[in-house]
Design a protein that fits this description.
mainly alpha; globular
Length: 432
Amino acid sequence: MMIALVAVGLLAAAILTRIPLGFILMAAGIVGIAMIHPRGFDAGLLIAEQQLLEVVTDFQLSVLPLFILMGVFVARAGLADDLFDACYKWLGHLRGGVAIGAVAACAGFAAMSGSTAASAATMSKVAMPALRRFKYDMGFAAGTIAAGGTLGILIPPSGALIVYGLLTETSIADLFMAGLIPGILSALAYIAVAFVVATLRPDWGPRGERFSMQEKLVSLSKVWAVGALFLFIIGGIFIGLFTTTEAAGIGAFCAFLIALLRRRMTTRIFFDALVEAAKLSAMIFIMIAGALTLNQFVNFSGLPRMAVEFVTSLNLSPVEALLCILAIYVVLGMFIDGFAMIFLTVPVFTPVIVALGFDPIWWGILLVMVVEFSLITPPVGLNLYIMKSMNPDIPITRIFIGVAPYYVADIARIVLMILVPGLALYLPGVLN
């Protein structure tokens, strides 16, 4: 027990040093196994080698680079600009309409990219010029896009849900279906926050322009193909037309085809997209291999069993125990990156959650929602610093203030998910 706790503590400390996460996880797993296995470092290195080999040869994992490639094609071909333009023309005339359009565009782009960092960075390039033009409060504008960007890890196809499914051997198709309704509700909650803030503080979120119905319909004509692609992918998975891996391959090819037919795919863009997708995939594969190596150590040490026994000994109700675990996540989220939290905590807390009688699919969605919250929580919120790097003229403290209203939406939807688990479990139930 002591060895496991010391190893986890050292791992958390190493993560704060900003050493690449995959190498930290793998090193922690190797050292931990060496400390408790009779064969020492030979066993640790052998297990790390096996996990790395399994990751790069596992057909299931091909879903990840294919969905990444689909998102990169959409971003590189400039389809995000069309998406924001359509959302702005339909919603811009409302109070806080440009911010509302930015959130809606973030949700749409999230459905293609599955990445929070890509969503925040891309939408910053696309939407911030319009927010500046209408003299929005810059802290609120940056906070809106930072919050909207978090939708990238909840709305399918979500990279975080894929990683959770692989770590816990949970159906990725079920997780995608489970994330759909909460993802839509999250987008609507953020839109409601933007509207309320703009109503209470009109100087923070002025109205945008009004457009004719013809202009609105023309804007839709530029994005209908992307919307149809999302519906085809998710609908195909839902009715069993194809697996998630096949859906990822079809999605990547169709995204390439859409960009090609619109004459936005050049040889340079194509190869740049392949290189970017390869780099992102390699980074995530290293993290997964490291996490699986660490999982072996955690299992050898008996930490999940001891965690279950400890929680049981407290005589807490399942909901009380769940709230304690969520409180730990909130604290961790202030100091540790969201993906690091997933890799570090899933092997320990998921067995506890299952032992308490909660559904692992529901827990996966709730976990990702808590990680979303951590992405906009100071002092380490990833999306906040992405917005700062993209907009160096905006003080980070103003971004902290501007994103604060969205905490209300985050807390409300986490509470709603606990009270109404059917929001996540209804569609997987229909699917099965």
